[in-house]
Write a structure and sequence with these properties.
With 198 residues, the protein is of the alpha/beta class. It is built from five helices and seven strands; from the N terminus they run αβαβαββαβαββ. The chain has a seven-stranded mixed sheet with strand order 3-2-1-4-5-7-6, sandwiched between helices. It comes from Luteolibacter soli.
């Protein structure tokens, strides 16, 4: 029996079908740099990747991974929130935007992506994606705070003609993929700002 495709693998497969050399790609959650490196390989010498993370440890890890592969020169690392994504890329210029939510593996699991910032970043992604571009979001409902964030992403996705790929045959909530193709969302209004209690 063939094992189900992991959501991260599906995200990579979908992006590989879209992203080309000389394109702009965005890794909204750099983490340990695996997705950033994947994108950097795809965009080639003439392409650009912008990678975000709020944790200095993640930026350092990503920089080291890219340097080891001699690909650091095609990546801009932003030590800051992905909610500022549209401040770093012009509208309709990115071919792919990736999110891998949750916590940084190997670091403090109490430090996780924040729901409201994630929703702001998703809205910003729709601005920077160009026609034919793709947005992938891997959600992790199985950790503290991850269930709330995952539910919020699904609610957001329902307003943006997203595809959701999840497993229903697991005892614990399994990671899942949300995918938005930009031709589906070009005419969709942006989510209104929502104030959340502190």
């Amino acid at each position: 029996m063939t094992a189900p495709e992991r959501p991260t693998a599906r995200a990579h497969r979908e992006i590989t079908a879209v992203l080309r050399q000389c394109d702009l790609a965005i890794d909204a959650t750099a983490g340990n740099g695996h997705d950033t490196l994947f994108l950097a390989k795809l965009v080639g010498e003439t392409g650009t990747v912008i990678a975000f993370d709020v944790q200095e440890q993640a930026i350092t890890s990503t920089r080291e991974r890219l340097a080891s592969a001699n690909l650091l020169d095609r990546v801009t690392l932003v030590h800051g929130s992905h909610a500022t994504l549209s401040d770093h890329a012009k509208p309709a210029t990115a071919s792919a935007v990736m999110f891998n939510l949750g916590y940084l593996p190997g670091a403090d699991h109490a430090i996780i992506t924040q729901t409201e910032e994630t929703l702001q970043a998703l809205d910003a992604s729709l601005i920077v994606l160009k026609p034919g571009g793709i947005l992938t979001i891997v959600c992790y409902p199985g950790h503290d705070g991850g269930d709330k964030e995952s539910a919020a992403v699904v609610a957001w996705a329902e307003n943006h003609h997203a595809e959701i790929f999840r497993r229903e045959d697991t005892l614990r909530p399994a990671p899942f993929l949300v995918l938005v193709r930009s031709m589906d969302i070009l005419s969709t209004p942006r989510r209104p700002n929502v104030d959340t209690p502190q």
